[in-house]
Structure formats: C-alpha cells, structure tokens
Amino acid sequence: MVRNHTNLRDEPEGFPASRLRRGRIGTDTTAVQGFDHTVDAFRGTPRGDDPGKVPVRVDD
Fold this sequence. Notes:
By secondary structure, this protein is mainly alpha-helical.
C-alpha cells in the first residue's frame, strides 16, 4: 500500500529530475518551423508521428 510508505514519496520525483539535469535521460522533441505548419504539427501527435513535444518555431 502506498500510504504505508509516505517516507519515500519524494524519491520518485527526485530520481528522474537529477538524471534529466545530468543528461542521462532525454526527451523526444520534434520542432516544426513556421506558424503556418502549427495545425499539421499537432495533428501528427495522436497518429504517433511525433512521440514527444512539438514546439512550433515562428519567424519574426
């Protein structure tokens, strides 16, 4: 039971955070260039085209 181990509650949060900072865990990111491609970028996510984050870079 989880409630029997409340002393370990912070451990799962600290485990990935420290590894992300050291670069031992990465994130999947697919960047899309141009505001006009925003809709296409987000339509691909549910299909599995982009497994992680999809930032859209817009031109100034």
